[in-house]
Each structure stands twice: as C-alpha cells, then as structure tokens.
From TrEMBL:
Coiled coil: none annotated. Pfam families: LysE. This is LysE family translocator. Its main location: membrane. It is found in: Cell membrane. It is a multi-pass membrane protein. It comes from Streptomyces nigrescens. The chain crosses the membrane at residues 43-63, 161-185. Keywords: Cell membrane, Membrane, Transmembrane, Transmembrane helix. InterPro entries: LeuE-type.
Length: 217
C-alpha cells in the first residue's frame, strides 16, 4: 500500500502538469466535441494501459535497450505530432487568408483535428491512442519508474496493471475536470476569434512537443 500511495502521488503530479494531453483534451472539448473529447481521453488511457502491460512483461525494456527501435518510434511520434499541430496552424492561416472562420457546427467537415466525418468516439480514441503510443518517453518513464513500485514477491503483471490502473483513474478524473471546464466556457471559446487563438495555441503546443521529441529533449 505504501508503494501504491507513493506511485499515485507521483503520477498524480505528473497528470496535473500541463502538457500535450491537456491541450488536446481541452481543445477538443472546447469546440463542443464532447463525444470526441471522451474518445481522446479513452484513447490516451488505452495507451497508458498498453505501456503498463508491456513494461510489466519486460517488453518495453527491449525498446529502450534497442537504439534503432527507440529512434524509429521517436521519429514516428515526432512526425505525427508536428503533422497534427501543423494542420491546426495551417487551418487558421488559411481561414485568415480568406477572412473566414465559421462557427463550428455538427456538420463542419473542415475541423483539422478530424471533426466532421471523424467526429466520433472512435475517431477521438484513435487520435488519443496514437498520440500516447507514439511517444517513446511514455515507455521510458514506465520502464524507469514502474518496476520500483512493484514488490519483489508480487506478480509483475498483476502489480503493473494495478499501478497503471491507478494512473488511468487519476488521469480520467482530471480529464472530467478539463472537459467540464471547457463546457462551461464553450460559448466563449466557440467564437471565431477565440477559436482561432485556441487552435493556434493548441497547434503550437502539439508541434512544439513534436519538435522536442525529434530533438531528443
């Protein structure tokens, strides 16, 4: 139980730290895509569970030990994040060029995070899962931290899944708060000027994470 509480404190502080996940969830929920926002949350946490299971089985240790595997995943993740952030930024600049930034609606097919034809729980889940699994730093974090909290006489898989479950629970609670906050300010954030600022801020954050990943920082 001491290990469990210590791990919960560590990942709780990590969860509260503003980052890529926070930006992605807030932006999606702020535009009124609550269903997709929950898909993003579930996708991110599905990735966390996968990392937890792989770490418990010792598979992620092979990833960090293999330079080629780690570098391949790092560059794939960096490219994905830069592409996703760039699409958001390009969308705002293109709309500025034609002086057009329409209010979001349920039929809007021009949302550059996949809204419209992919404005679904499944679409959000795919985006969240890809964002998490293509981040090798998540795997490196679990390899470095998770084994330290697994008792020597415990089943690695059972204990690892339990610890990952604690991380997921805390992250979902925090996501509830983020989505609720975004819903409260949804009307203001859906104004064209506010949406432009939100898209540019989120796009910059996502692209910056991708560039930092590419530079190995």
């Amino acid at each position: 139980m001491d290990a469990l509480w210590a791990f919960a404190l560590m990942v709780g502080l990590l969860t509260l730290t503003p980052g890529l996940d926070t930006a992605l969830i807030l932006r999606t929920a702020a535009l009124g895509n609550r269903r997709r926002a929950w898909g993003v949350v579930l996708g991110i946490q599905s990735g966390t569970l996968v990392w937890g299971v792989l770490t418990s089985l010792g598979i992620t240790a092979l990833l960090t030990a293999s330079h080629l595997a780690y570098e391949t995943l790092r560059w794939a993740g960096a490219a994905y994040l830069v592409w996703m952030g760039g699409r958001l930024l390009w969308g705002t600049w293109r709309r500025d060029a034609v002086d057009e930034y329409p209010e979001p609606t349920g039929s809007d097919t021009e949302d550059k995070t996949g809204k419209g034809t992919d404005d679904t729980l499944l679409g959000g889940w795919r985006q969240g899962l890809a964002t998490n699994l293509l981040n090798p730093k998540m795997g490196a974090f679990y390899v470095a931290v998770l084994p330290q909290f697994i008792p020597a006489d415990a089943s690695h898989l059972t204990a690892g899944v339990l610890l990952a479950g604690v991380h997921i629970l805390l992250a979902v609670i925090w996501a509830c708060a983020l989505i609720t906050l975004a819903q409260v300010f949804r009307d203001r954030l859906q104004r064209p000027s506010a949406r432009r600022v939100l898209d540019r801020l989120t796009g910059t954050v996502i692209a910056a994470f991708g560039l930092r990943l590419a530079l190995g920082e």
